[in-house]
Amino acid sequence: MNVHKTLRIGIAGLTVLGLAIGVSPLGVAKASTDPIQPGDEISTTAGSCTLNFIYDGTGGQVGKVYGGTAAHCVSSMGQQVKLGTGEVFGTVAHIGDADVSKDDYAFIEILPSQVGRVSAAMKGNTTYPKGVATPAETSVGDQVQLSGYGVGFGLTQPTQERRIGVVTYDDADTHEVIAPLIFGDSGGPLVHVKSGKAYGIVSRLCVGLCEEEGPTVQGLLAKAAANGFSVTLRTV
Prior knowledge:
The protein is built from 3 helices and 14 strands. By secondary structure, the chain is mainly beta. The protein has a domain at 38-120 and 220-233: Trypsin-like serine proteases (Thrombin, subunit H, Beta Barrel), CATH 2.40.10. An 8-stranded antiparallel beta sheet has the order 2-1-5-6-7-4-3-14. A 6-stranded antiparallel beta sheet has the order 12-11-8-9-10-13. The radius of gyration is 16 Å and the shape is globular. Mean pLDDT is 88; it is low at 2-28.
């Protein structure tokens, strides 16, 4: 989609808030057989965020399974990552750059004992993702589907899983959407509704209905591979 940026609501001066990420979940860890899937609540010492998509390792990562989130949701390689239930499900395996929107991504290696629980289907939207969206498939005004644990939105299933945003700009590396987002949604999945494909992950955001920007899935996969970390998106 070759469209110049024309709308930049609430980003400048509020990006730091977009990196503050939510509230750590309370309670003790408990074993679960629930799926580990896009849209799940996750937490680290940095706070509470959302898991985006499931990825399968190739090349040097072959045989391993990963979940994605934002780089600003984690702090170090090897760091343990928990689900909203409090149980550890993986460790940080690769971190992009939290200071650059298009590089604000990270991969979590899912523990072998938890791989059997993994589902590629987006929480509440089980027909997504069907592939990786490209700018040739998107247009300004296209809808994107969200699923995440933003503060307040995570309290009910409809507000958690059925929020809709609108594309305002994208290229191969970066997307911008207007959507109802707040802290805790960071790292979460955005799906291009028309194609059903993985579009981007939530990165910089302001409070409420405003413009968010972050890496496209196409872009983060290319950047990770260029840095020797090769994975592919798992589809439904």
